[in-house]
Specification:
Layout (H helix, E strand, L loop, with lengths): L3 H24 L5 H17 L14 E4 L5 H11 L5 H5 L29 H20 L11 E6 H5 L1 H12 L5 E7 L2 E2 L2 E2 L8 H8 L2 E5 L5 H13 L5 E6 L22 H10 L12 H31 L1 H12 L16 E5 L1 H12 L6 E5 L3 H4 L18 E3 L4 H14 L3 E7 L7 H10 L4 E5 L17 H6 L5 E3 L4 H13 L5 E4 L5 E3 L15 E5 L8 E5 L4 H13 L4 E6 L2 H5 L3 H7 L7 E4 L8 H4 L4 E3 L10 H7 L4 H11 L11
Parallel strand pairs: 1-2, 2-3, 3-7, 6-7, 9-10, 9-11, 11-12, 12-14, 13-14, 17-18, 17-19, 19-20
Antiparallel strand pairs: 4-5, 8-15, 16-18
Helix pairs in contact: 1-2, 1-3, 1-11, 2-3, 2-9, 5-7, 5-15, 7-15, 11-12, 13-18, 15-16, 19-24
The chain binds thiamine diphosphate.
The site of thiamine diphosphate has 19 residues, from α2, α6 and β4.
Length: 679
């Protein structure tokens, strides 16, 4: 051991290690190995570089820290406790227990200072890229000469697993292209994953790979060399043009005589005997568990006090900004709080009734462009499908390395990274992110959508080409099961508007929401713009389902329930049935999730329980619709893959037609022998 500083460094690092060891041991589950190996890099980062204030964990210009290898959660919890976040030691002692703030993997909404929910490897990597993008955009938009109010780094610790996952390849490629110089990742290069050595599966030259993406890459051979880590982070910060990867050769389970460098240290407690041997080996007192030496605590708390100073300096800078640029300062406050300006939706158009109508994706593009001028921090794009998804903001240009103030994101053909990046942008705050692709490719971004839903992030997905209605591209591109599968994600609101005016309402609703992701399912094909003087107004959308067309004072004989492009088919069927003297109600069910949130009396008003003759129409798998049509009800859907042909042929061939709806309705009403029933 060298001088006093070295000793203090080691004491602090071992404190981090042993908190993880003790917490995992007490919980009798968890991942001790990663924190034991990565403790020195976390120590250097949090005590020498990271800008944060535990007393105000959310101050907007703090550095962001992402623990992408979420299974190493005790590393993060240890750092948060030691630096003084509101995460008492009891929480660490309650690691992984019911109601604790220290779950197995970090969850963004539980402990203060946890910037994102991680665990599914690779997601945090993409989140950090999104945070760095948001930082660059906000800096370009808000900073003025002599007034820098947005200027922070995004740091992360990423692991072998993160770098193996495809999403990290996508996100790293885009980050390099965008030259996100304020993004710095420390790579915990311990060469062990669950099945053993990474030599089993992961032998490419990681440094070369990242250099090829345009990253600045450094290598540290000794993961315990505090000064080498310090020098590398300093050099990474000085490199303004490229994101940085610092490969740090570490040893999983460092200090454990029998488990270091083995997969055994990865995801199981060391065991009482090995804990003892490890403590002895590192010169750590055997008792008490969860020991935090006073000198170590002082050191961490001192670092946190630095952050408080930085925040105060920032506040002073902001005051001066406010004096010189009062309007921008107001805009900044609104952006950070997520508030919308009073008249943000006043230019949303009303579309005139039109039998030919328009595709809802086209209406969406029009609405987006009506809103965009009022919401300067609405920023998004698509995974190389903007001409189809209609997600471009006119008058703005491409968000690129030398044009960070622009609002049109080009994610490239990288749906998964787009999902993770949108999450990172939303987590960063200050921006309202949206992203588009074909609905069928929502499958490519599902892991990120799931996390957006879990975290309650306000992200808007513009999913177009939402059915066989896309036509000739055929079954690979025609979503059949995607809407049902998105509806299966808790906390995700899926909205499938029935015409242009409902699309406008969908955007109004999506942006007006305080939190939670929204998936818009939009058509490629034209569908009629409904005559709202004849039918109920489009703002019924906010209730999820509403009576679009009713019987005149009579009790309905049958209820037709439809979503999106099948609503006009339901209306046609209703017309035919009415000509036969049937009392028909048409319910437009745009969003199951929104309808399910309505009070029971609204449910019974729209779908009276005594009326059991119900037909649902949606050009996708029927799964789930029986919840609304009941056991006796019928569903006109598609339970097989599509085909390549003009869309009107497909609707006909697959029986998603008004005639078929009429037939089903008559069948339910005890008249199966109708002339229309032969097929
Ligand atoms: C997407 C995803 N797949 C699988 C897992 C399960 N898992 C958790 S950790 C891990 C191994 C990761 O190895 P590494 O990243 O090197 O972590 P270390 O062994 O260094 O702790 C796996 C496969 C996961 N968390 N996420």
């Amino acid at each position: 051991m060298g001088n006093g500083q070295d000793e203090l460094d080691e004491l602090c690092i071992n404190t981090i290690r042993m908190l993880a060891v003790d917490a995992v041991q007490r919980a009798n589950s968890g991942h001790p190995g990663m924190p034991m190996g990565a403790a020195p890099m976390a120590y250097v980062l949090w005590t020498r570089f990271l800008t944060y204030n535990p007393a105000n964990p959310r101050w907007p210009n703090r550095d962001r820290f992402v623990l992408s290898a979420g299974h190493g959660s005790m590393l993060l919890y240890g750092m948060l406790h030691l630096t003084g976040y509101d995460l008492p030691l009891e929480e660490l002692q309650n690691f992984r227990q019911w109601n604790s703030k220290t779950p197995g993997h970090p969850e963004s909404y539980l402990a203060p200072g946890v910037e994102t929910t991680t665990g599914p490897l690779g997601q945090g990597f993409a989140n950090g890229v999104g945070m760095a993008i948001a930082e660059r955009f906000l800096a370009a938009h808000f900073n003025r000469p002599g007034h820098t109010i947005v200027d922070h780094y995004t740091y992360g610790i990423v692991s072998d697993g993160d770098l193996m996952e495809g999403v990290s390849h996508e996100a790293a490629s885009l980050a390099g292209h965008l030259r996100l110089g304020k993004l710095i990742y420390l790579y915990d290069d311990n060469r062990i994953s669950i099945e053993g050595s990474t030599d089993l599966t992961f032998t490419e030259d990681r440094a070369l790979r990242f250099r090829a993406y345009g990253w600045h890459v450094q290598q540290i051979d000794d993961g315990n060399d505090v000064e080498a880590i310090t020098r590398a982070i300093r050099a990474a910060r000085e490199e303004a043009e490229c994101p940085s990867l610092i490969g740090v050769r570490t040893h999983i389970g460092y200090g454990s005589p029998n488990k270091q460098d083995t997969a055994e240290a990865h995801g199981a407690p060391l065991g009482a005997d090995e804990v003892k041997l490890t403590k002895q080996n590192l010169g750590w007192p055997l008792e008490p568990a969860f020991l935090i030496p006073g000198e170590a605590l002082d050191c961490f708390r001192q670092a946190a006090r630095e952050g408080e100073k930085r925040e105060n300096e920032w506040k002073a800078r902001f005051e001066s900004y406010k004096q010189t640029h009062p309007q921008l300062a107001e805009e900044w406050k609104r952006a950070i709080s997520g508030e919308l300006p009073a008249d943000w939706d006043k230019d949303i158009p009303t579309f005139p009734a039109d039998a030919k109508g328009m595709a809802t994706r086209v209406a969406s593009g029009t609405v987006l462009n009506a809103i965009a001028p009022k919401l300067p921090t609405l920023i998004g794009g698509s995974a190389d499908l903007a001409p189809s998804t209609k997600t471009l903001i006119k008058g703005s240009h491409a968000f690129q390395a030398d044009h960070y103030g622009e609002r049109n994101m080009h994610f490239g053909v990288r749906e998964h990274a787009m999902g993770g990046i949108l999450n990172g942008m939303a987590l960063h705050g200050g921006v309202m992110p949206y992203g588009g692709t074909f609905l069928v490719f929502s499958d490519y971004m599902r892991p990120a959508i799931r996390l957006a839903a879990m975290m309650g992030l306000k992200v808007i997905y513009v999913f177009t080409h939402d059915s066989i209605g896309l036509g000739e591209d055929g079954p690979t591109h025609q979503p059949i099961e995607q809407i049902a599968s998105l509806r299966a994600i808790p906390n995700l609101t899926v909205i499938r508007p029935a015409d242009a005016n409902e699309t406008a309402e969908a955007w109004r609703f999506a942006l007006g929401q305080e939190s939670g992701p929204i998936a818009l399912a939009l058509t490629r094909q034209d569908i009629p713009t409904l005559d709202r003087s004849k039918y109920a107004p489009a703002d019924g959308l906010s209730r999820g389902a509403y009576i679009l067309s009713n019987t005149e004072g009579k009790k309905p004989d049958v209820i037709l329930i439809a979503s999106g492009s099948e609503v006009h088919i339901a209306l046609e069927a209703a017309h035919e049935l009415r000509q036969k003297g049937t009392a028909v109600r048409v319910v437009n069910m745009t969003s199951w999730e929104l309808f399910d949130k309505q009070p029971v009396d609204y449910h019974t008003q729209v779908l009276p329980p005594e009326i059991m003759a119900r037909v649902a129409i949606e050009s996708g798998v029927p799964q789930g619709w029986h919840r609304y049509v009941g056991e006796r009800g019928e569903v006109v859907g598609i339970d097989h893959f599509g085909a390549s042909a003009p869309y009107n042929v497909l609707f006909e061939k697959f029986g998603v037609t008004a005639d078929r709806v009429v037939e089903k309705a008559l069948g339910l009403m005890g008249n199966p022998k109708s002339t229309l029933s032969e097929d």
